[in-house]
Specification:
Largest sheet: none
Oligomer: single chain
Radius of gyration: 17 Å
Strand content: under 5%
Structural class: mainly alpha
Distance between the termini: 49 Å
Number of strands: 0
Shape: globular
Length: 188
């Protein structure tokens, strides 16, 4: 059961990486320092003070950058591969009790995949907003993304089952929006 919970925690944090790359890492570092999260062997460095300070600084810079019109679109482009790597790292760092091969396969496929899907979805939303509002409405999207990333990260660590429910709700919403558009576009 402990392994399943660690997978749920890692998956929730990976999805949160798709909204903001450094927020889940900052939450993990704080949770580790406060004793609310135990990391897999080899990932204890995430809970050290220098890394906590680095993640806090990176989080502040990342969130600030998303409030600058057009810079936010550049950040989205750069954040896509970085969010995938972050998703892999957070999944691998939370999962223990399984073979290394299975752990890393799960980290790459589920962790990296979830972060990548979310990042692409947020990038598409921001591109649409930029097109419609010339970037002036993007601050609303940035605020929602940061809020969702913080909330999802805290839920994933603090109440993993609620975090899993939130992840399912978010992924269902995105699937309906994406597949609904595809179905509309392919209708005769």
């Amino acid at each position: 059961m402990e392994t399943l919970i660690s997978i749920i925690v890692g998956f929730g944090l990976s999805v949160a990486c798709g909204f903001r790359v450094f927020v889940p890492l900052l939450v993990m570092s704080i949770a580790t320092k406060s004793g609310h999260l135990t990391l897999a062997p080899g990932f204890e460095w995430i809970g050290t003070y220098p890394v906590l300070i680095a993640f806090a600084t990176a989080t502040a810079l990342e969130i600030s950058g998303y409030y600058v019109p057009w810079v936010d679109n550049v950040l989205d482009t750069a954040a896509t591969p970085v969010s995938i790597v972050a998703g892999i790292v957070v999944m691998a760092s939370t999962v223990s009790g399984i073979s290394p091969f299975l752990k890393w396969a799960l980290a790459v496929i589920a962790g990296g995949g979830a972060a990548g899907v979310m990042q692409i979805a947020t990038s598409m939303t921001r591109t649409a907003s930029t097109t419609v509002t010339a970037g002036l409405g993007n601050f609303i999207i940035s605020t929602v993304e940061a809020f969702v990333s913080f909330t999802l990260s805290i839920l994933a660590v603090g109440v993993p089952i609620l975090g899993a429910i939130a992840v399912v709700a978010i992924l269902s919403y995105i699937a309906r929006k994406y597949f609904g558009r595809l179905a509309e576009g392919s209708a005769p």
